## 1
Amino acid sequence: MMMPNLSWILLLPTLLLGLIFFIPSDKPTLIRRISMVAILLPFLLSIWVFTAYDSVAGGFQFVEQIRWVKEFGISYHLGVDGINSLMLLLLGVASFAAVVASQSIKDRIKEYYILLLITIIGTYGAFLSLDIFFFYFFHEIAAVPVFLMIGIWGSERRELAAMKLTLYLVAGAALALVGLIALYFSTGLNTFDLVVIQQHLAANPIPLAVQNWIFPLIVVGFGVTLTLWPFHTWAPIGYAEAPTAVSMLHAGVLKKMGAYAIIRFAIGLMPEAAHTWMPIIATLAVVNIIFCGLVALTQRDLKYILGYSSCSHMGYILLGLACFNTISLNGVVFLMFAHGIMASLAFALAGFVADQTKTRNLDELGGITKQMPFIGTCFMMAALASAGVPGFANFVAEIMVLLGSWDQYRWQTILAVLGIVITAIYMLKAIRLGFQGPLNPKWNKLVDAQTLVEKFPFIILLAVLILVGCWPLIISKHIETSTKTIVENIVKK
Amino acid sequence: MFPSIAWNLISLEVLMTIALVGLIIVDILSPKKTEGNLIGIFSLIALFGLIGFWLTQHDLSGSTFGGMFIMDSLAWFFKGLFLITMVFVFLMTEQFFKLSGKRSNAFYFLLWLALLGMCLIASSADFLLLFIAIEILTISLYVMTAYLKSDKHSIEAGMKYLILGSLASGFFLYGVSFLYGITHSVRFDVIQGFVSTHPMTPMMLFSLVLIFSAVGFKIAAVPFHMWVPDVYQGAPTPVTALLAVGSKAAGFVILIRLFFGVFSAWHVEWSLVLAGLAAITMTYGNLVAMFQTNIKRLLGYSSIAHAGYLLMGVTAGSILGASAINFYLLGYLFTNLAAFLVIILFSIATKSDAIEDYAGLSRRSGILACTLLLALVSLAGMPPLAGFFGKFALLMATIKSEFLWLALVAAVNIVISLYYYLMIVKRIYVDAPINTSPIIVSLPMRLALGVAMAGIIGIGIFQGPFLDAAMTAIQGMHF
């Protein structure tokens, strides 16, 4: 009998969430403190899970399972391997940074933290679940809280943004659900248990004709979450109008659930169909990189630039997914982590600037690094990371993806490299217009992040980014043990 | 020779009748000027007694009255649904009297009659008894719909419901007469025997279409839905809730008995037609619901859409499909009753059902806003709420029966419906209130809202036992 370690990651914040319901809303400091604890505890647990995961032994560890709905073969089944233990760590860092960055929220605090906690618990649940039903279940929990958070605490065009984001994501998820249920019936096992299905399908794959129509449902469905072109338009506006913590979490972590689902359910379970469909995805990935990159070039709004940039970078993840070799799949998981941290950092900084100046327009900003040296420097680093400068985690990840894709997709890889140049251009443009150059006299009284609490989210995210960039081995060992089996399975076919 | 009657099978209905008669006697005997709501309280007590009695009937099975009346697991399940629905409807009625100012005990008697009719529907194994049971339910609903004599919407609703309802009854009888002509019986077991040995004939099809149109009227499936928006809007809110939950569930128990039992041998012939109806019904309901400004009317159209989702289960024609219907109805019960409870409490405070008046409800009453949020999100089918797993089970059944296109239509519909539900959520939580005065909710009503919310969340998270119950009901059914 194993200790239910992973369940604590879900239970502790849920219990504290229940506690918050009973605290009267006129005690904001207490609510803030409890929420911080509720997010810190699973963060610490996920650090512990990540370090305790034995990457030599591999496979799923810390497994716990409770039968839930026996008629459908649904079980509450948690466990981690190298991929999702890393995702837990990403969520832990990003959610903690996000909750610290939520200090600027002053209105309707109780509702805010309740919704934020539900979103984070749902995301933890999705990454922990080894049951397809529960993955979907947890992954959809976040939809309505995110809608409300953008709707209530967002900026100017928040209502449109909230509606667009939610409808796109739910439409994608509903499509994927049809695919997942079809997958369930085509295995004939009467179980949603990922591990059982994996083992069964390795020996007796689903007929190719069936795989070929289930696969696109799942990839396009979750592709919407991953801002697959042309279903990406919800992201820039959604991230731009959302409150800082939501854009940090969504751009950083929640959209990675799409990539995670594609790795686990599409490529992992239907490798034959992957050979049919993934070349098309590789081409779409390049459209993502180039098209969204070029759109980012034309934007004047800081958060829109970051939003399009995030869509553009998802192209590398998609491109890596389309290659059937260990190095690029490692790159994908690495990039999910690195981009997650980088996007959280960039949105946190943009949110800080927007809160202080009440504008996101680069033409109105200008030279604000003079007033905000700390924020300006951090943004410079985030921009360099985003552009794939060595020393940051993104460089390692993108190099891995591109090395892996070179043999299979020659011209796509060349265009993808071009995408890095585009990133560098729009990021440097944003810095030149907004952060460097002559100070716009309007901002003479601007205040930098001063207290440690204010600086904390930026410091922790930047630290992770540089640490992993200089010492990739600390996470790549975990990734390799788990991607190896997936890739072997694909190559065999 | 008088056939022997197994009274224990029909004891629930007998007790119900006794309760009704007893309440009428109490009403006659009690002084006219009493302040308290004696009948309402007695009704609730009697109802809880009946629920206790219903629990003991769990394993009851058999048929009596020469096979007209059956008691099986399906009947037991649905009687439970009806009883729980009635608890909420009685509570709403009490609030409704506060709103309208006039108390009338006859309203309670009509509700009891409707309950009796619904329970008889669940136990009918004979088309004539079924017809009588449907009429008991429908006639009491006619009267209650037109109950607000001074409100022209209520009168219009009652009139519309009466005319279209009578038409549906006529269709039903006409269909049954053909059926009798072909099979020489109105009993389910005889007809089932006939169906399993004979191919479908055009005349049989004609009679089936007539019967289906009458049941389609009850469940509000397109093209028999015309009455829904006006009646939902015009009827007193407790009656709307009863229509949306009880009457719809009664329609579906008939459909389950007919299409999964009596006519199940002809599954292939009708499944495609039902699939088409399901797709049209849900799409129509959701598309029109987007443009509504009155919340009861919106829930009317949404109830049409839900009939469409539920028809997917009938289309599937499998045990899974029927169990999914049962589970869905169970979740739908708590979800819809929660919504109608909020609507009635809100209309007491504001005298309004307009969606725009719900603006900023979250700042006026936290519990009303939270309940309505959960109800709407559950109707849209989002986890971790009851509506999600219901839709999930229906999608499973549909895909298992290889109606992939129907599953995709349903997926699109979920997104459309999410749009208009979220528009209300936005009004409640995002928009600034026009009127900031807080809405006070009394303690018993808080309790009722709490129970409804617990139902929505509980069924949504611990799906296992509820799905078990839904499935056992199907596995043990006689027809």
## 2
Amino acid sequence: MAKGDPAVSSRGRRAAPRSRRAAATAEPELVQLLTPTGERIESATGPDGTEYRVDFTDEEYRGLYRDLVLVRKLDAEATALQRQGELGLWASLLGQEAAQVGSGRALRSQDMAFPTYREHGVLYCRGIDPIMPLGLFRGVDQGGWDPNEFKFNMYTIVIGAQTLHATGYAMGVHMDGKTGTEDGEAVIAYFGDGATSQGDVNEAFVWASVFNAPLVFFCQNNQYAISEPLERQTRVPLYRRAGGFGFPGVRVDGNDVLASYAVTRHALDNARLGQGPSLIEAYTYRMGAHTTSDDPTRYRIASEVEAWQAKDPIARMKAFLDKQQIADDAFFAEVDEQARAEAVHLRERVLELPDPAPVSMFDHVYPHGSPELDAQRARFSTYLESFEGSAH
Amino acid sequence: MATETLTLGKALNTGLRRALENDPKVVIMGEDVGKLGGVFRITDGLQKDFGDQRVIDTPLAESGIIGTAVGLAIRGFRPICEIQFDGFVYPAYDQIVSQVAKMHYRSQGKVTIPMVIRIPYGGGIGAVEHHSESPEAYFAHTAGLKVVTCANPQDAYVMIQQAIASDDPIVFLEPKRRYWEKGPVDLDAPLSGAYPLHSARVVRPGTDATVLAYGPMVRTALDAATAAAEDGRELEVVDLRTLSPLDLTAVYESVRRTGRCVVVHEAPGNLGLGSEIAARVTEECFYSLESPVLRVTGFDTPYPASRVEEEYLPDLDRVLDAVDRTFGW
């Protein structure tokens, strides 16, 4: 490469760590419809010129607020349950409520979602009993809901693996002839910033692109993969990765429930109409720890957390509802009371979740059973019974 | 006439064609499976007759093949994935072990993954590295998967259809060096009433020692039995066919009669299928055994350069040597 070549000089410029971080983590061109102070923006333009707007009734605005508050409260209750020893672990969504409720409410009933293990807000929007993920983290099962009934798949803990499942499912939607019309089906794959480094996610990008799958890749960039900051995963803003794979990408303010809704609904509708995949980078922040086993004070500074606190998704929605007189104090008090009551109810039911019978571990290994496992179960049962009445 | 003489490869091709005809939810996916018909031509002509939505040339990404097949299965399809060679399955290992195998269990039975993962396996074709491996133990060790392998054209034709019809995720291992061996295939045999998929079969009765083999080594074991017979020794040869679950009922019965048991496979001996089989035969037939169960296997090395693979692979002489040792104990 010749001296003075633009690529050389640009590589030289990127050599300094500070500017690399800026390249990956700056906030250019966020699609935003609600500012952190609760100012409503009429419409916002995406990088490809798409104009995003929402047209909600007052009732719908209040409904989104209610979702945000409930999802946060139930999540806080789960964190408390873990601290009291009632859950083995909890992966909190604190700070990501708007990205999840906005995208979750943008799904139409026929759309299928493939979550990670943190999508408690999307799960809630899909109508699944919020106790279900607590069963998983308590260790009484591995996720009890029916993926097909609720159009919301099993949680996936192996990072990025579900993006391929979503891609295949979306290929199947296309093969079933369920795209190309307004009542067609679309699929959404959730993942995080860390997952974008996984081979599976990059393979999913390739596959979805070449098969024109009706799929929305929804990346919640919460800035950290456990302790690793975004610049350890990427040198370019994540939404721009889409361009290299041949489909559109957009970065949305993930703490803005209205913009998250608008961008996701648009992408899903494009997908169901047969226009193929797209990538949404929901720019947000994980306010809490990665999980209850994590200590974020070891890898990030308080001022950074405080800066994001000022962009809180619920506070801005409340400010907007208040300023526009869409909701009053009685409404806010009523939502808080509902959240409190649901959290209490959740707690009561978690404490009553029975441990599974030990021999249930042999169930459902194979769809039609297994003589070998039947024999192991029988031997183990006999062994357990041999303790009955003894000091053990 | 319903019975034709086919190569093992053509028998697989015919079985796949039958499955595509019988169930519109069956799809084939893999690298080069479409226009080319697969590097071994096992899917030859299928895309031409069933279209590129049923026989799908995929991007070159094994984890992608299996991972997207999971999604298709959740959607209600019955995907048949071709992994081009044994040594290329490892990029898909996470999807197979962590996703395919566990999905039914984790969902408490609400999700089934009726997937077939076809893998040409084993050595003996003079290939370069990564093209001659025997990875069966990795999969047989994983709960939630089933693992089968065929050894002759008739079994290839029936077993591939049985595997596709099964609701289990099945790793279907194809003995690539036997692809070109011919045998009679009854093309009209109905699947219902066919010999069960997860059953071993005695392929040569005998009285003096029991030799267990599967896939490419069944031919080798049968050749050894022929040679042994010339020396007055009658070997009973069992084609295991199913590696997970193992079906050892007939094996126990046989070993109780013969008192001697030799297990043959190409894969390395350490923690291979032979180890598990030896343990189980010992537990079940302890008082009938005249000698320990012996294993004839590949060595505990990476698969070697092809100019020495004939020395690496178990052959007739090594099988007979092991049989001799069971008599000299």
